[in-house]
């Protein structure tokens, strides 16, 4: 998404049919929880949204976010540690599966300016 910055909000649906603006730079990661995704924020709070992880992935700018597994999307700019099979954001460890590893590293290196 050209022109996107992490300060811009995205609109995420609430279960009452309304939408909530969520600033991209407030998102640490998102995970699947049954029919909802749980968005975890930098302030330690989290919030459920009735949206699929695929739809969320399409909404978030690819320059700043990457899927790490079937059930997780991480904010690349908040990653503290990267291993072969996992990443760490703060005290939270997220899986990094074979299916998404290449995409994650490609986006990560692009983000930090390494080609």
TrEMBL record:
Residues annotated as domain HTH LytTR-type: 12-82
UniProt-listed Gene3D superfamilies: LytTr DNA-binding domain
Residues annotated as transmembrane: none
GO molecular function: DNA binding
Domain of life of the native organism: Bacteria
Protein name: LytTR family transcriptional regulator
Protein's organism: Chitinophaga agri
């Amino acid at each position: 998404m050209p022109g996107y910055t992490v300060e811009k909000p995205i609109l995420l649906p609430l279960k009452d049919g309304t939408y909530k603006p969520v600033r991209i730079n407030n998102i640490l990661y998102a995970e699947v929880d049954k029919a909802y995704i749980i968005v975890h924020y930098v302030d330690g709070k989290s919030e459920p949204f009735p949206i699929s992880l695929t739809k969320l992935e399409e909404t978030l700018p690819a320059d700043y976010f990457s899927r790490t597994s079937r059930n997780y999307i991480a904010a690349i700019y908040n990653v503290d540690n990267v291993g072969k099979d996992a990443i760490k954001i703060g005290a939270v460890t997220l899986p990094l599966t074979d299916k998404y590893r290449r995409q994650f590293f490609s986006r990560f290196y692009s983000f930090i300016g390494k080609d």
